[in-house]
Write a structure and sequence with these properties.
This protein is α/β, with parallel strands linked by helices. It folds into 3 domains: about 120 residues, no CATH class; about 35 residues, no CATH class; about 100 residues, no CATH class. The relative contact order is 0.10.
Length: about 270
Amino acid sequence: MRGLERDKLVSENTVFARFLPGAKAAEGTAYLVCTSAGEVGVNISADHMVCDLSTFDSMAQRFGRVNRFGDCKGTQIDVVHPAGFGEKISEFDQRREKTLTLLQELNGDASPAALEKLDAKARHEAFAPEPIILPATDILFDAWSLTTISDKMPGRPPVEPYLHGVTDWEPAQTQVAWREEVDILNSEELRERDNPQDLLEAYPLKPHELLRDRSDRVFKHLETIAKKHPESPVWLVEERGLVEVLSIKDLADKKKKIASMERSFYYLRRSVD
């Protein structure tokens, strides 16, 4: 879902409006099915919730989306979790296991007051693992400051891992956008006149145009599109802004090569379904 559809969902969708503050009573039951993105960023509340087990910081956010405005009685939260975690598990699952132990100590009370009464040290140990923070040096800052040089340069790694850290449990993500100019500039002659990289610098994409998802899911859909429209043009934009023009068919063939590229951008022609 792009930012555009997300904004419309909040402002125009009558079913979604039932989860917002001041919602009017309506007949029937409304269900909101969402990813963990529903934990933060929007002021919503549900009467009940069914969710999977995550780390404690995430679960506390989810609980905050149930009876948030205190106008419901008999609220119930069901947490689906593994029967057991085994011995050799990842650090992330270790944190989930500790979270389950803490939730069981609540004895059915998921209020903010009950969460606060839990041992502070135990809560912290059940948080999601902190990312590895890479050390930044003066030399790196000097290299990053050379913004006029957009090509690959020795000794200048991507900035993103240094800003957000490195995690081994978060899957890589990719952003996709649709622009008509990708289809219009479908010849080398036109692209020499209107360079894609220069165009994207002059007319950058905005959040409401972007769709973000796990890279493996994006690739799966691109492969499906490639079977229907193999020659449809695509602009592959690297993190540094470098643009490679190719067809969806060629992009699908490059899956192994670019599967590790986090937060890359794919600009597709608007008419591709």
